[in-house]
Amino acid sequence: QFVLTQPPSVSAAPGQKVTISCSGSASNIGKNYVSWYQQLPGTAPKLLIYDNDKRFSGIPDRISGSKSGTSATLDITGLQTGDEAVYHCGVWDSSLSTLVFGGGTTLTVL
Amino acid sequence: QVQLQESGPGLVRPSETLSLTCTVSGYDINSGYFWAWIRQPPGKGLEWIGSISHTGTNYFNPSLRTRGSVSVGPSKNEFSLSLRSVSAADTAVYYCARRQRSGSFSYWFDLWGQGTLVTVSS
């Protein structure tokens, strides 16, 4: 029921790379700017990426974002156990006149 | 540093009004930015509720507009959420946050409160 589609879960081994996708449409990702948030268990979301690919203050360069057409991706390299969290994408939807989020993706570091 | 803290009842009866306040410390909200409410039902994703500026300009999720409002106050450096006629579907952790933007349709939330769980139940 979310306007943005994220995979429910992804997993990878420590040290590896993972990509989390966020699929939308022309009225949201296709024309506006995507942000990404990390939510550790039991805590509030924390901003990682804004304006599609800009890292927020203090976010390491092993975390990066990109956008192409109506999809956005979050890449995390050099995975650590501390990266285990739920990751959310968000963007303004110009047709709905509301800010929308994906359903969140749970990252497991095996 | 800037901090946000939600406060309000943890239990609300069905059909009544949910009222929450966010207290901002370390920053005068009259200096700028928009301030937002976002909620997260247990085990589910995030839902933007609405945002307001210090001047009272506000934007609300169309799906909640008939029942809700955001306002500045009641005290200095506070902003509030009111959601009427609540049901079990409104049970969620409610977060307040600071909204940033860099241009048209570029919005993100850089500071968040810790969240407060509101349960709607009789």
Describe this structure in words.
The complex is a heterodimer of chains A (110) and B (122). Chain A has 110 residues and is mainly beta. Chain A has no helices and ten strands. Chain A has strands at 9-12, 18-23, 35-39, 46-50, 54-55, 63-68, 71-76, 85-93, 98-101, 105-109. In chain A, strands 1, 3, 4, 5, 8, 9 and 10 form a seven-stranded mixed β-sheet that branches. In chain A, strands 2-7-6 form a three-stranded antiparallel β-sheet, with no helix packed on it. Chain A is globular, with a radius of gyration of 13 Å. The termini of chain A are far apart. Chain B is mainly β and 122 residues long. In chain B, the strands form two sheets. In chain B, strands 2, 4, 5, 6, 9, 10 and 11 form a seven-stranded mixed β-sheet that branches. Chain B is built from no helices and eleven strands. The mean pLDDT of chain B is 94. The radius of gyration of chain B is 14 Å and the shape is globular. The chains are: A mainly beta (110), B mainly beta (122). The A-B interface holds A 2, 31-33, 35, 37, 43-47, 50-51, 56, 88, 90, 92, 94, 96-104 and B 44-48, 61-63, 95, 100, 102-103, 105-110, 112-115.
Helix content of chain A: under 10%
| Number of helices in the DSSP assignment of chain B | 0
- Assign the structural class of chain A, choosing from mainly alpha, mainly beta, alpha/beta, alpha+beta, or little secondary structure: mainly beta
- In sequence order, what are the helices and strands of chain A, one letter per element? EEEEEEEEEE
Number of strands of chain B: 11
Q: What is the radius of gyration of chain B computed over CA atoms, rounded to a whole number of angstroms? A: 14 Å
Uncertain residue segments of chain A: none
Query: Could you tell me the mean pLDDT of chain B?
Result: 94
The rough form of chain B would be described as globular
According to DSSP, the number of beta strands of chain A is: 10
Distance between the termini of chain A: 29 Å
* Global morphology of chain A: globular
Order of helices and strands of chain B: EEEEEEEEEEE
